């Protein structure tokens, strides 16, 4: 073989190996949100009318003092309506009545509590509440956020142009944020409308995979309401797309907002943890019942959400309204949620084979809502589950 031919065959061989080698993990490489972000967002409770500097400060105070910060909650996120206009240079202007001290002072305050501040914008001309969007101002806005000390940006998808590419628009903001040199979590919010799980891995740290959450157990409405059950079903097939730094986002929590029972809110929180979803409380943190606090502060369940392996769980068994959901954990264990959608209490069983374990394998079982280690089990685990309720356990062979 001539030297040239030998050379060519070596190149072909190398190229062949490169093709065979596993693809690098897909995911935005900005170092942020290696585990799902935890914090609070103003929208679900305060919406446009109720947002203010006072509410944001009070929420930061609450997180810092009520145990949430110690449990891992750190982002205090302002949603829509903090902004009113742009000045003659095109700089975005905060509402001077609702945010009289300005955003820089607010960020300093939130940082002084050991927490981080998030902000909201939109990839179109206007936000969903009609405030100025970032279209055409991406670099200017990103730099402004960084100057203020912002740590988290959510970008919505209202008032976009017909045919506007979501991937290109969000990539533009990703690059604008990266150019500031400040580590900023980037949250894509196009409601799953352009299947972001297929393209957003290298673009955002999280992407909304579903429409706006409604504070109800089952709200199948003519306009496609997203109650808890609807979101569970939409999240189930998306599990392979999530991983460290890039998460499916089934929307902010409704726990404590009053539309569901305590049992239903436990299902909500358990399943968000099983999904490796962002845990962004969406209630009034200054006025919480002990039941709501106990849900948001359940460290056993939070540990499932924050498992460093970052695998999203999914449904492994369904018999009518009785379901078994499982998430693989970094220690070889499983988080298992037995979910009862029916109107009466029922016994639900998790079979080891559905969890990917041989039936003969003995395993330790911990009940994550009772905070109790149970007896060792082999082959299966069964429990009586309340109507519209959950039993969640951690299984460790
Ligand atoms: C959209 C988003 C919500 C919220 C509102 C604000 O509906 O999906 O999460 O940010 O806009 O107007």
Task: Please write out the topology.
Elements: H1 3-20, E1 38-41, H2 43-50, H3 53-65, H4 68-71, E2 75-77, E3 83-86, E4 92-94, H5 102-112, E5 116-122, H6 138-148, E6 152-156, H7 166-179, E7 185-188, E8 206-208, H8 228-235, E9 247-249, H9 262-274, E10 279-281, H10 290-296, H11 299-305, E11 314-319, E12 322-328, E13 334-340, E14 346-351, E15 362-367, E16 372-378, E17 380-385, E18 389-396
Parallel strand pairs: 1-2, 1-10, 2-5, 5-6, 6-7, 7-8, 8-9
Antiparallel strand pairs: 3-4, 11-12, 12-13, 13-18, 14-17, 15-16, 15-18
Helix pairs in contact: 3-5, 6-7, 9-10, 9-11
Could you describe the 3D structure shown?
Residues 4-25 have low confidence and may be disordered. The protein has helices at 3-20, 43-50, 53-65, 68-71, 102-112, 138-148, 166-179, 228-235, 262-274, 290-296, 299-305; strands spanning 38-41, 75-77, 83-86, 92-94, 116-122, 152-156, 185-188, 206-208, 247-249, 279-281, 314-319, 322-328, 334-340, 346-351, 362-367, 372-378, 380-385, 389-396. It has 11 helices and 18 strands. It has an 8-stranded parallel beta sheet with strand order 9-8-7-6-5-2-1-10. Strands 11-12-13-18-15-16 form a 6-stranded antiparallel beta sheet. Helix 7 (166-179) links the parallel strand 6 and strand 7 (185-188). Helix 9 (262-274) packs parallel to helix 10 (290-296) and helix 9 (262-274) runs parallel beside helix 11 (299-305). It folds into 2 domains: 38-305, TIM Barrel; 314-396, Immunoglobulin-like, CATH 2.60.40. With 397 residues, the protein is of the alpha/beta class. The longest helix is centred in the first third of the chain and has 18 residues, at 3-20. It is 29% helix and 23% strand. The protein is globular and about 70 Å long. The protein binds alpha-D-galactopyranose.
């Amino acid at each position: 073989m001539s030297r040239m031919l030998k050379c060519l065959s070596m190149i072909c061989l190398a190229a062949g190996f490169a093709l065979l080698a596993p693809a690098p993990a897909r995911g935005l490489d900005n170092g942020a949100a290696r585990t799902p972000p935890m914090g609070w967002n103003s929208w679900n409770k305060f919406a446009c009318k109720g947002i203010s500097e006072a509410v944001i400060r009070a929420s930061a105070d609450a997180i810092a003092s009520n145990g949430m910060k110690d449990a891992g909650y750190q982002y205090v996120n302002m949603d829509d309506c903090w902004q009113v206009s742009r000045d003659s240079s095109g700089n975005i202007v905060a509402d001077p009545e609702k945010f009289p001290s300005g955003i820089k002072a607010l960020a300093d305050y939130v940082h002084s509590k050991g927490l981080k501040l998030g902000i909201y914008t939109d990839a179109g001309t206007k936000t969903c509440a009609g405030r100025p969007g970032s279209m055409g101002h991406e670099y200017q806005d990103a730099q402004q956020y960084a100057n203020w000390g912002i740590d988290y940006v959510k970008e919505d998808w209202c008032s976009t142009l017909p045919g506007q590419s979501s991937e290109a628009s969000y990539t533009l903001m990703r690059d604008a944020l990266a150019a500031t040199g400040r580590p900023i979590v980037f949250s894509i919010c196009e409601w799953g409308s352009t299947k972001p799980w297929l393209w957003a891995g290298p673009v955002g740290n999280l992407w909304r995979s579903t429409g706006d959450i409604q504070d109800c157990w089952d709200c199948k409405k003519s306009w496609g309401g997203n109650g808890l059950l609807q979101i569970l079903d939409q999240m189930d097939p998306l599990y392979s797309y999530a991983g460290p730094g890039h998460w499916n986002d089934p929307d902010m929590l409704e726990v404590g907002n009053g539309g569901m029972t305590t049992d239903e809110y436990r299902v909500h929180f358990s399943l968000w943890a099983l999904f490796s979803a962002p845990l962004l409380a969406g209630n009034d943190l200054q006025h919480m019942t002990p039941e709501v606090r106990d849900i948001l502060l359940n460290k056993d369940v939070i540990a499932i959400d924050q498992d460093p392996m970052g695998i999203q769980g999914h449904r492994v068994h369904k018999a009518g309204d009785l379901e078994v959901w499982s998430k693989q954990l970094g220690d070889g264990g499983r988080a298992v949620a037995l979910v009862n959608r029916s109107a009466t209490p029922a016994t639900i069983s998790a079979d080891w084979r559905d969890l990917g374990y041989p039936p003969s394998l003995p395993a330790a079982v911990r009940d994550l809502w009772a905070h109790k280690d149970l007896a060792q089990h082999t082959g299966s685990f069964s429990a009586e589950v309340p109507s519209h309720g959950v039993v969640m356990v951690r299984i460790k062979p």
